[in-house]
Amino acid sequence: MARIDLNHIRHAYVPNPKSDKDYALKEVHHSWEDGGAYALLGPSGCGKTTLLNIISGLLHPSHGQLLFDGEDVTNLSTQERNIAQVFQFPVIYDTMTVYDNLAFPLRNRGVPAAEVDRKVKETLEMIDLASWANKKARGLTADQKQKISLGRGLVRSDVNAILFDEPLTVIDPHMKWVLRSQLKVLHQRFGYTMVYVTHDQTEALTFAQKVVVMYDGEIVQIGTPEELFERPKHTFVGYFIGSPGMNVMPVEIESGAARIGEHQIQLPSPAAPIGGKVELGIRPEYVRLGRLGMPVQIAKVEDIGRHKIVRTRLGTQEIAVIVGEGQEIPAEPHIAFDPKGINIYADSWRVGGN
Ligand code: ADP
Ligand code: MG
User: CB of 25 within 8 A of CB of 10?
Assistant: First the structure.
């Protein structure tokens, strides 16, 4: 396993010397620690696959350098980089048995037969395909084929890193949950460097030690799931992570308090040093609905099992609140903000100074 350094990586599929707009990756400068479990999270089209393919060597970046344990591998092939990659759709040999599909990458590298057998059997257990070992891959379901694909990535423990590109997309929800926790156990046991691409926050937050949030070709925040939840650096992160996402509203800062309409909101101490027009972000979990605070109207109530999402309206501003089981909505509803859930943004949802 290796530490991976991405040095000022940029990539344009169609180079345009006059404009930066065409960069699928604008600037990625970051290190993945040896043995780390990273999730690359972001909406479709933000550049996750592009970045992953640059790490694996399927794609050569337009600018920048890639280092594995300090060694420049920018110009090496995928094979030379010694990387395992699992794609969104299964890549397997249809005419081979399930067993041989897993054994192939090991035999290819000259691993002794006894070890091949041990590793393959162990991996088949893990992905719950042991009883299918001697079946031809051709006859299997899409689900099972994708598990083989996953197994082919996991069977090799000598690689510098294992890269996953939305590998559970075609897997049914229950199995998805099982495999996700398997991956976590595996990471803890073998200390693989893992980079896991997904657009699904649940997947990212359960799998990763560090979540790398991407937006429009850039990394906007890297943090633990808790950091991303409590202290999103950009309103985009607050919006994208959480369900529903963070409430964001324009406010004016005056002597340590935020003003919204005629209301004053107490800020956490020390008070935000910025003045003037900014944006206040607060997650629905930190808004209280009761008889005290700012009077609101109820726009909508959504039942989500144990909780309700109550969409309130304060003037023209919609503010979502999470309300626990059995909690009544008062006849004259008011909301109050828990100061510890308040984040202030001087520069919101604009990434890279646009
Ligand atoms: P993600 O994996 O996050 O969905 P991608 O890395 O696939 O995003 O794509 C990032 C951007 O690059 C998108 O705007 C996409 O349209 C563009 N793109 C991806 N692949 C190609 C390609 N082969 N040729 C041209 N543009 C591409
Ligand atoms: Mg992709």
Answer: yes
Which atom in ligand 1 lies closest to the alpha carbon of residue 217? Answer: 10
Residue ranges of domains in the chain, CATH in brackets? 4-236 (3.40.50.300), 246-350 (2.40.50.140)
196 C-alpha vs ligand 2 centroid, how far in Å? 11
User: Kind and range of the H or E element at 49?
Assistant: helix 48-56
Q: What is the pLDDT along the chain (354 residues), one digit of tens a residue?
A: 799 999 999 999 997 777 767 899 999 999 999 999 999 999 999 999 999 999 999 999 999 999 999 999 999 999 899 999 999 888 899 999 999 999 999 999 899 999 999 999 999 998 889 999 999 999 999 889 999 999 999 998 788 999 999 999 888 888 888 888 888 888 888 888 999 999 999 899 988 999 999 999 999 999 999 999 999 999 999 999 998 999 999 999 887 789 998 999 988 866 555 678 889 999 999 999 999 999 999 999 999 888 999 999 999 999 999 999 888 899 999 999 999 999 998 865 543 333
Q: Look at residues 29, 3, 2, 25 and name the one whose alpha carbon lies nearest to residue 12.
A: 25
| Residue whose tokens read 């510890």 | 340
- Give ligand 1 pocket residues (Cβ under 6 A): 13, 24, 42, 44-50
Identify which ligand lies nearest to the alpha carbon of 53.
1
> Which ligand is closest in space to the CA of residue 15?
1
ipTM surpasses cut 0.95: yes
Atom 25, ligand 1: residue with shortest CA distance: 13
For residues 55 and 68, the answer to whether their CB atoms sit within 8 Å is no
